[in-house]
Amino acid sequence: MPELISPDAAWHHAWREAHLEWGPGLHEDGFGLLPGDDVETPAGFDAWLHRLAADTRCTYRWITEDGRVLGGIALRHEEHEAVPRAGRLGYGIRPSARRRGVAAWAVEAMLDEARRLGMSQVLAVSAAGNRASVRTLEAVGGVLQQDDDGGQVRRYVLAAAPGSE
């Protein structure tokens, strides 16, 4: 059974395995990676974790199971600068863990966190061509609000509080 954990330096090796599986780039939404982050060295990894922990406008969680990092998920709250572009919820599942319902499970778990933070709704943004993400957001009750950028981006609203649909 997967679980959500706070980013932790003890998981450096397992996190690096997941990161390497994705290949080069910063496409693992949910991990809060920035172009200048050094996640290769233990010191750089620790500095990145400290930056994440200091970000009071976002809750970062890693999706783990049996000693493996399956993915990451982030809940952006307050006035986080990424919300207009990326929404309040971002996630990524490593390729070998996809098609098992892990993303839907993690989204639902983060909606519980959103409820605890007093949020009634959560905006999630997906590339229209990312069929797996679109299916995930629809499976957890996401309601399509609009297509942006000529149909390239879809914005879904997810109910975080009971009865807020």
Automatic annotation (TrEMBL):
Cited PROSITE patterns: GNAT
Molecular-function GO term, any one: acyltransferase activity
UniProt entry tagged with the keyword Zinc: no
Highest taxon of the lineage: Bacteria
Residue ranges occupied by any N-acetyltransferase domain in the UniProt entry: 20-165
UniProt KW keywords: Acyltransferase, Transferase
EC number, as in UniProt: 2.3.1.-
Gene3D superfamilies: 3.40.630.30
InterPro entries: Acyl_CoA_acyltransferase, GNAT_dom
Entry protein name: GNAT family N-acetyltransferase
Organism listed in the record: Arthrobacter zhaoxinii
